[in-house]
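Today's session is about reading a structure prediction critically. Students often jump straight to the picture, but the first step is always the sequence itself: look for stretches that repeat, for charged clusters, for runs of hydrophobic residues. Only then move on to the predicted structure, which in these notes is written as discrete structure tokens rather than atom positions. Here is the chain we will use throughout the hour.
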Amino acid sequence: MAQSTGRVAGKKAFITGGAQGLGAAAARRLAEEGAKVTVADINLAGAEAVAAELNARHGAGTAFALPLDVTQEDQWIEALEKANGLMGGISVLLNNAGVAGDKPLEAMEFDLWKRIMAINVDSVFLGAKHALTYMRENQPGSIVNISSIAGLIANHNSPAYNASKAAVWLLSKNIALYCAKQGLDIRSNSIHPTFIDTPILDPLSQRLGKEEAHAKLGRQIPLGHIGEPNDIANAVLYLASDESKFMTGAEMRLDGGISAM
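Below is the predicted structure for this chain, in token form.
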């Protein structure tokens, strides 16, 4: 049986991209603090492993796993309906699923551009649109969207990643204002990490070796090192909890100081 104490006791969270990285870290942190979680991912086996780990640690009924391709509206509708039944409601939506891996402007294929935009942006639109059906019945609620510092600061070689993460930033504000105008006690905020030790860094680590890759990235950050998944999971916890009840339409920059330069 899921625990009934903690900073998010009684919350019911639906997490995309939950099989690894930031999504898995957030699922662990929310479960530690009393929430039920549904781990959704196109990698169902990975999602099931995370859910099994959390149930073993915190009790049966803490976590559930569902398959979800975040670019497919019909899958969103089905997964949210199932999660609502499994958890007895949905009060937190964490739109975490995302990809990088684009190319400089003239080298980028249009299909790659569309894929990155679909996973990074369409997913946030579809998630919020369809999750609100259930979140209306489980207020207060919180929508947390993982953007990136690359959504606020551009570079020269990631047009789709820059554009998609900037879109998540502004869409988060639109959702916040929409919910407020509707009189809903449902907040929407975005989180903007810099380099975090997750599988998204694997291509660079494979090319340079993990230690050198992390050192190279760390040299770009005023604090001198990359972040850890729990740095982001702790921010998700705060935004999911009622501790942040007066925070909506805002962005949290977890970037080691990059945006202050």
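Discussion point for the tutorial: Strands lie at 12-16, 36-41, 63-67, 92-95, 141-146, 186-193, 251-254.
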